Automatic annotation (TrEMBL):
Name of the protein in question: Response regulator
Entry's transmembrane regions: none
Classification via SUPFAM superfamilies: CheY-like
Family matches, as InterPro entries: CheY-like_superfamily, Sig_transdc_resp-reg_receiver, TCS_response_regulator
Keywords, comma-separated and alphabetical: Phosphoprotein
Domain annotation Response regulatory: ranges: 8-134
Modified residues (4-aspartylphosphate): 64
Species: Mucilaginibacter lutimaris
Length: 141
């Protein structure tokens, strides 16, 4: 059996139903032992700013762009400003319904973003993303 190199995943999305479905999918497929969800970028950043949570950084972040209070771009900007405090850098996937060309181009040119994924995302795509991450991590061992 292949070791699981994904210990924690975050989903940052204002859609509670989507977060619930994502969590259930990850749990049912056994893709990782811990899914943490946030309804906005600001809640995720506030969590990270608390020194108690410094070791709770995820391996993967699935981030929506369109959210109230702090959108996905605001989250990335805030995260980059505090990233030096952490020992690892999570892989960030934008998972969004935005078809704005400017968002797509910005994502393609941003070094922190691994992929731009359009909603709805089918289960095969998510499974593939998790598998690809595990393969990449095992190559570093």
């Amino acid at each position: 059996m292949e070791p699981n190199y994904i210990n924690r995943v975050w989903i940052v999305d204002d859609d509670a139903v989507y977060r619930y479905a994502f969590r259930k999918f990850v749990e049912m497929k056994g893709l990782c032992p811990e899914v943490v969800d946030f309804g906005s970028g600001i809640h995720a950043i506030d969590f990270l700013k608390n020194p108690i949570n410094a070791n709770k950084l995820p391996d993967l972040i699935f981030l929506d762009i369109d959210m109230p209070t702090m959108d996905g771009w605001g989250f990335i900007e805030a995260f980059e400003s505090i990233q030096a405090n952490f020992k690892k850098t999570p892989s960030i996937y934008l998972v969004t319904s935005s078809i704005a060309y400017t968002d797509i181009v910005k994502a393609q040119n941003h070094p922190a973003i691994i992929d731009y994924i359009m909603k709805p995302v089918d289960s095969k795509k998510f499974s593939l993303l998790f598998s690809e991450y595990v393969v990449k991590q095992s190559a570093y061992l």
